[in-house]
Amino acid sequence: MTALKQIFKVAAIQTVSTTDLTVNLEQAAVLIKKAAQAGAELIALPEYFCIMGRHDRDKLALRESLGQGPIQEFLAEQARQYGVWLVGGTIPLESPDDNRIYNSSLVFDPSGTRVARYDKIHLFGFKKGTESYDETISIRPGENTPQLFDAPCGKTGLSICYDLRFPEFYRALGELSLIIVPAAFTYTTGSAHWEILLRARAIENQCYVLAPAQGGKHENGRRTWGHSILIDPWGDIMDVCPEGPGFVIGAVDQQRLQDVRLSLPALKHRTM
């Protein structure tokens, strides 16, 4: 059982990932180092931090078996090097389908040991004018139940991007201290819904929300919304990074969690 800390600093990394794995890992390494030097004890990377391909199926070339591969080795080594909890955004893992991968979030503890895995279950689809996305082309939806792990800030729930639109998903995780939402929201949907959905998840679950995002114009032509953010249990924004590479940082405060839940005990008032 992980010991609970009264104050636990967390950070969300924002990247503008490219089509080159090496470039992306170098970008991530620089930002992880900066966040760790700023005092972060848990660091979360965004969705697709390792690849933003020109085509949907480009990520298949980078897929790894669980427990082996350069992306997982990178994440484990970064966690060990800086002695931090590291949430590896998402990486492509093998699935039973030859032509699809799992879009998976892996968590490593400060020793570099993998302690949690969540495979994205809600797959994004969007079409408006000339803008169109269909994740089912290259991604197989995860079969695992909602996943959480015990961090020094308390129970921490894992989710990925489009999951944000499904509040029942977070209710299934139970009472949490922190929700993590690595994402690559499009500029169109992000500008409309990103902040309001994240604040809603924080308010209704009375917990902190940490959302690392892709944020900028990518070489494949895609533009992501960015605005990586940390939100407290009252729905107040603690830090935000609008666009471009960077990070947000702040503390999960057990006293703040307790004060919000005591003043408005909505979690205890639930009847369903």
Weakly predicted, low-confidence segments: none
Structural class, from secondary structure content?
A: alpha/beta
Overall shape: it is globular
Question: Helix count?
Answer: 6
CATH architecture: 4-Layer Sandwich
Helix-strand pattern: EHEHEEEEEEEEHEHEEEEHH
Keywords for this entry:
alpha/beta; 27% strand; 15 strands; seven-stranded mixed beta sheet; 272 residues; six-stranded mixed beta sheet
Describe the SSE topology.
Blueprint: E1 7-14, H1 21-37, E2 42-44, H2 70-82, E3 85-87, E4 91-94, E5 101-108, E6 114-119, E7 125-128, E8 131-134, E9 148-151, E10 154-158, H3 167-171, E11 178-180, H4 187-205, E12 208-211, E13 228-231, E14 237-241, E15 246-253, H5 254-263, H6 266-269
Parallel strand pairs: 1-2, 2-3, 10-11, 11-12
Antiparallel strand pairs: 1-15, 3-5, 4-5, 5-6, 7-8, 9-10, 12-13, 13-14
Helix pairs in contact: 1-2
Structure commentary:
Pfam families: CN_hydrolase. Keywords: Hydrolase. The chain is α/β, with parallel strands linked by helices. The chain has six helices and 15 strands. The protein has helices spanning 21-37, 70-82, 167-171, 187-205, 254-263, 266-269; strands at 7-14, 42-44, 85-87, 91-94, 101-108, 114-119, 125-128, 131-134, 148-151, 154-158, 178-180, 208-211, 228-231, 237-241, 246-253. Helix 3 (167-171) links the parallel strand 10 (154-158) and strand 11. Helix 1 packs parallel to helix 2. The mean pLDDT is 96.
Question: What's the gist of this structure?
Answer:
The chain is of the alpha/beta class and 272 residues long. It has helices at residues 21-37, 70-82, 167-171, 187-205, 254-263, 266-269, and strands at 7-14, 42-44, 85-87, 91-94, 101-108, 114-119, 125-128, 131-134, 148-151, 154-158, 178-180, 208-211, 228-231, 237-241, 246-253. The model has no long low-confidence stretch (mean pLDDT 96).
